[in-house]
Give the backbone structure.
Amino acid sequence: MSLDVGCSRRRLSLAKTRRLRHNRDVQLYLIRHAHAAAAADDSLRPLSDRGREDCTRLVAFFQRNGALRAAHFWHSPLARALETARLLADGLKLDHALVETPGLLPEDDPAEIADRIGRSDTIDSLALVGHEPHLSALATLLVRGKGYPVAFDLKKGAVLAFAPTGGVHKKTGRPRWHALWHIEPALLGPPPKQA
């Protein structure tokens, strides 16, 4: 299996844009990593107990409703993003691929990952696990065609789902998306009791 995670900033091909326009079942999930523990090296920070508990709550929620069904999880190179992706995908028993993907760090340009999304053949069920302020800017870019001012605020552990509208942004030629739903661990109540 080969995933296109190249770094060029090309416009989307006309064929790819047409394919996204006609596939209304496409789902894209933006997931902010769960709460992380403190560590001297920021890139190695694992999830805290609270972060792992939040992932357990999200898994229980999605097991009940089936709303998160990503087959591919692109995550940043930071440990907390990988751990969040792994806990969600494994907990939901999804047939998934975890792919460390450049362009998902907090300071990265959201246009780079938006272009990769547009060129990816895995877009029918793709989850991006990353960080703020990048994810809010990316979500805004997908909906509005520009990343700022941001229209979304993803708390730690939040999941924001999108589908294509069928249209494209005039200036960039990128597919236009709309938000379907947004959930965060704080909205789910207490964690499920362990058996």
The beta strands are 27-32, 72-75, 97-100, 125-130, 159-168, 175-183. Residues 14-39+56-187 form a domain with the Rossmann fold fold (CATH 3.40.50.1240). The chain has five helices and six strands.
